[in-house]
Amino acid sequence: MRWEEVRSHYPDQWLMVEAVKAHSETNNRILDEIAVVNVFTNSREAMQNYAQLHHQSPKRELYVVHTDRKTLDITERRWIGIRRRVNHFELCNQPPAGFKPAGGWVTESYPANRVSFPCSAWEREQRGM
Question: What's this model's pTM, rounded to 2 decimal places?
Answer without folding.
Answer: 0.60
